[in-house]
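Cross-posted from the bioinformatics board.
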Amino acid sequence: MADRNYPIEPYRIKVVEPIQRTTKAERERVLKEAGYNVFNIAAEKVFIDLLTDSGTSAMSDRQWAGIMRGDESYAGARSFFHFEQAVKGIFGYKHILPTHQGRAAERILFETVLREGDKIPNNIHFDTTRANIEYRGGEAVNLVNDGAYDPEAPGDFKGDMDVEKLRRFIEVNGRERIPLVMLTVTNNSGGGQPVSMANIKAVGRICREAGLPFFFDACRFAENAYFIKTREKGYAERSIRSIAQEMFAEADGATMSSKKDALVNIGGFLALNDEVLAEKLKNLLIITEGFPTYGGLAGRDLEALAIGIEEVLDESYLEYRIGQVRCLGELLDEAGIPIYMPVGGHAVYLLADRFLPHIPRNQYPGWALTVALYREAGIRTVEIGSVMFARRNEETGEEEFPELELVRLAVPRRVYSMSHIRYVADALIDLYQERERIRGLKIIKQAKHLRHFTVRLEPL
Ligand SMILES: *Cc1c(COP(=O)(O)O)cnc(C)c1O
């Protein structure tokens, strides 16, 4: 017997997709051509792709069967009613509007409820949520608890909103300037940390008292529910479905990217109770996404989504899913590799500035780590640090760096086996032994906004 309880896949393989191992010399060439930016690398040249967990899930045999059974009628398709019934059964809201992905749901919502100068609080806004709010002239405000920014602070629910900050925020700004309050579960931009039921209820109570609508950014609702079940008192015997229902009952609606916890490769939706608002959203949906019974998706997409959003509630799936990510974190932590603790739901985050203390921030240690990991092992990850977030101070001309310098290892759902995960851990442990040899980089070409997608660099 192995001396570790590796999580075991609660499924067997029916279809395979070959992946390619490349040589180090080949990867060196690929990196040079890509301007040392892993976003510019063809996916075929990647052995293990941990760039994102979004839209990268493997579908089940039942979902693929659903793809064949999708009803492609323009209006009133059978697949829409399957989708609507599945979502209502979990979320409980009256109106369900399909969209082509999560950011479309956000865009339609904010275009309708937000006026210039309005403020939207959240635990931590995800990038697309922030961008959609700022694009409408609003302000996206993060009110997460202080511990969320400390990678060593213990805590079962480091995604929790600071409810005192929220109370004060509503007092100071007044409800007229706050169209709604959001809560992101799990907190993607804060280490994938969960939000407790107690916190959800506290936020719900504050919103009801203030007469403010409360919306979830629900992308990883099932992973969040699993953390509540396993960590919060009184939920151990409850089903994931009933915990999710209890979460959603506290709020008035949700935006969702189905590319996460609906186990599909594309799709999203808006769900809400307010009849008047739903009518307005529907009108905008028709103009920009499509008729309300398909909203920018094919019937087959809705069918796969309806099945996936039920499958994600399966506890043996979630136990494996969360266990696989945790196991990767434990393997690294036990080898002394600095990571954000505790491990979140969908990803492990390396603390790149501690992994590579000899590389100053202006030589981008996080970015250097993504390059080294690809060069040594063909693994693709993403920097969430200085290249992504540094801002130039207009007065001094100097770059100002974000609090954390992270590299995210996002694990796609049902895609990689435990052997793949052990390969990733071993590669990182080897790299950690040789970390002094890793060098920083300098930027040779960059765009003004979202530069990480297209930036080109050179090793120093
Ligand atoms: C992915 C994501 C979104 C946006 O969804 P897309 O489908 O990528 O448009 C919004 N919020 C969170 C928390 C996400 O993880």
